[in-house]
Amino acid sequence: MKILKGMKYRIYPNVEQQKLLAIQFGHARFVYNSTLAARKTCYTETGKGLSFKDSCRWITNLKVSTETLWLSQADSQVLQQKAKDVNTAYQNFFKGLASYPQFKKKHSVQSIRYPQRVRFQKNYTYLPKVGQVKTVFHRPLEGVQKSTTVSKTKTGKYFISTLCEIELAPTTHINENSSIGIDLGLKDFYTTSEGTKVAHPKLLRKADRAIKISQRKLSKTKKQSANREKARMRFAIKCERLANARKDFLHKQSTSLTSEYSFIGTESLKVRNMMRNHCLAKSIGDSS
């Protein structure tokens, strides 16, 4: 049985490589927003949207246009993947899995995807049109490498994640003695069928006051000023710490369960409908 597993590592580009990555991020964001705008315009004028092939042809014409010749500075496959992202966003919207596609912002999380030509070496990763970037491999790569995504967080940290295809032996026997059921809750994070209760960390409640103060200070700064950028960074750091603490708690709980039990049963909850309850929405969101 083959599965896809994501491997994520921290990368440390130098000043010159950060500029090259900024070009890749900026050009990819421009292509995404332009493709989304073109599909909206096409639907308004003709009543039909652009297909993925039409979007790729439109990007090719955009690169040879005299006004946007600078798009050739970015990798061609990176730009093509952004057109694919727009097409996927529309498919998810029509299936009811996501909201209507929105334009990408400059200060949001930036990401580009290489479908191939990325090479992992000892302590370095080769990225097309960027070069060899210093990488910290905290665990070895497994399986066959597929697509690779490079991202930049709001706090200025760079990460690289690659999708690997791994061969697993199928499990044909389940030990009933190592099975457990889980009931999710808000007062307790979850309760097992054995009667074990795990306390809710309430991370958002603990960090709520500091985040509100930081957000209030950000709202009072002048737009496009140095103080606003400093306030934005302080606010982003607080939000990132909250997200990391939440991920750490979830990973520790899931690891302890999967290492001890071979079969885990959970209830299926419609979280989207539960979030409509304004009295419980904040606690439900904090529970992840």
Q: Give the tally of β-strands.
A: 11
* Fraction of residues in helix: 40-55%
In DSSP terms (H or I, runs of 4 or more residues), the helix count works out at: 7
The proportion of strand residues reads: 15-25%
Mean pLDDT: 87
Overall form: globular
Order of helices and strands: EHHHEEEEEEEEEHHEHH
Specify Rg, calculated over alpha carbons: 23 Å
Separation of termini? 30 Å
SSE class: alpha+beta
Q: Which stretches of 5+ consecutive residues score pLDDT under 50?
A: none
Number of domains: 2
**Describe the biggest sheet?**
7 strands, antiparallel
Order of adjacent strands in the largest pleated sheet: 2-6-7-1-5-4-3
Fill in the keyword field for this structure.
four-stranded mixed beta sheet; seven-stranded antiparallel beta sheet; alpha+beta; 288 residues
Could you give a quick summary of the protein structure above?
This protein is an alpha+beta fold and 288 residues long. It folds into two domains: 2-166, no CATH class; 176-287, no CATH class. It has helices at 15-46, 52-64, 76-94, 203-219, 226-260, 271-274, 281-287, and strands at 2-12, 110-114, 119-121, 124-127, 131-136, 144-152, 158-167, 179-184, 188-192, 197-199, 263-266.
